Amino acid sequence: MEEKVGELWHRLITRMARTSHPEAAVTLEQVGTTVGILFRALGGDGGLQVEAAHATEHGARRSLLHRIAGDSRKVELAWRDEQYLRLPAVIDLFPSPQLNRDLYIWLAALAVGDHQDEEAWFGKNQRLTIKALNDYPGLRPRYQRLVEAHLAQRIQPDSQLKAEAAQEAAIRQALREPGSVEQLPQSRRPPQPVPLWLHPFPPVVAAAGASDDSDEAGSSSRGEIKQMEEQNRQAERAEKPEAKDRGLITIRMENIFTWGDFLNLDRGSEENDDLESAADAAKDIDVLSVSRDAKASASKLRFDLDLPAASEDDLVLSEGVLLPEWDFKKQRLLPDLCRIVPMLAANAEPVLLPDHLRRTARRLRAQFQQLAPARVWHRNQQEGSEIDIDAYLRFATDRMIGHAASADGLYRDLRIGSRDLACLLLADLSLSTDTWVDNHRRVIDVIRDALFLFAESLSATGDRFGIYGFSSRKRDPVRFHQLKTFDENYNAAIRGRIDAIKPGYYTRMGAAIRHSTNLLKAQPSERRLLLILTDGKPNDLDKYEGRFGIEDTRQAIREARELGLQPFCVTIDTKANDYLPHLFGSGSYVVIHKPSQLPKELPLLYARLTA
């Protein structure tokens, strides 16, 4: 009975305290595309992606009803950082869906002028409001409607304490007449949230998977670092066990001398395990299971791990090539920052074309043979396969009428024409290609089939082409897999290399594009196409994750275009429309929405690009 009464009371008080309007809610998912286009069209940073903002505590005084109900502690406010424009996931502030939608549009326009300068929240939002209204006068009626609707919902100043009432009056004045109030009066509590403005203290959101670019000197560690003696240790990758699962595991008595204990070698600051004890334990473990943990490290053990993948790695062809990388914050290239290491598949046996691709390959070859240049008569040649009758008649006529005539150019020769085109296909071989497309194939399998059919098709045209793949582990090394060079003929050995591709590491795309640009610009062809095949946006373990990688890739593409190359991206990433327009431009990429269609679509796309 008590539980029933409590449940009824909770429902009643929550309903009474509710100030939102869920029946008129508009979600970011519904308007995200429109808002993103509007933000960029108004001059916003094209490299920013639109993401949902999480709720944060505002600390302002709540009404008695809200305190009883225990809600309204947090609020979703908009803000932007170096990588994202963050907007509320849901806006249900007003009883009208149109007003809620208008608020999304207003916040996007307001964020256009935000350059993340160190500026007081109160003055900054007034300045941004003035700029938005002056730059886009059409927003003024919409803004006025939002202000009036919002002011009707705010707590009235006469019901607040003196200091808080002064703050509220200043905010109301600033909303109605932006720029009319210079400073926000002081108060012990923060003012009521203003959803028409950007966040007063945007939370810092770390990039997923980001880490420091250097492991030297324990830059991320606050405590001791112990270097163990040089000895490679066998290792495997594993999920981090739950606390209740940790402990000594002994299954059979004959294994009693083999350790199977979970040792938290990378310990958080709250743990004070003895570093010497951990080092001694690590020496006795036969196989170390490596997992990820987001906690900060109080102390570290350093030792070499022998991961299984290294034993089956590809053949390294040279020490590598040093390349620059673009720092968008400093707006300059950092010289010799990345190292490209060319690699070749080890022990790749020559293979025939897979059976499931042969029918499609025959059809594509027949279509692409029509693109091959036709045989053309070259006239007025000094030597050739036969006499040029027209040239000979002119020569004979000139001799008969007494004109001086040259005997040069009396032959013609039948030669095969040339499209004078070279293409380099650069394939992303990162870890993400290990995901499954359907119940039978992974992304890497689809890419492999696409490379097979691409090579089969281009070999029928006579066009010069090269095929390479890449993945990376930070900036050194960037692995550059040689599948087919421009000087090699397509044959069973090349098919063997394509058949041997496998998922690698991460996607440092800028460095791979720069190296591909250097290879392609060395080709003597008049037209040079750089075709990039990927399944996601640029990323790596270090600061390359997020905006840094996006801007470096964009700069690499710009450099390729300045050299006369034609970059074009083919992707199966369903979210690619959020970032590829900023990278390649509106007409230089295509999204394949059904990854299984990539093998058939890629050669046909090449035909359209080079027609």
From TrEMBL:
Domain VWFA: 420-609
Biased composition (Low complexity): 206-222
SMART domains attached to this UniProt entry: VWA
UniProt region (Disordered), positions on chain: 177-245
CDD domains: vWA_norD_type
Signal sequence segment: none
Biased composition regions of type Basic and acidic residues, renumbered to the chain: 223-245
Superkingdom in the source lineage: Bacteria
Pfam families: VWA
UniProt-recorded name of the protein: Protein NorD
Organism: endosymbiont of Tevnia jerichonana
Species classification: Bacteria, Pseudomonadati, Pseudomonadota, Gammaproteobacteria, sulfur-oxidizing symbionts
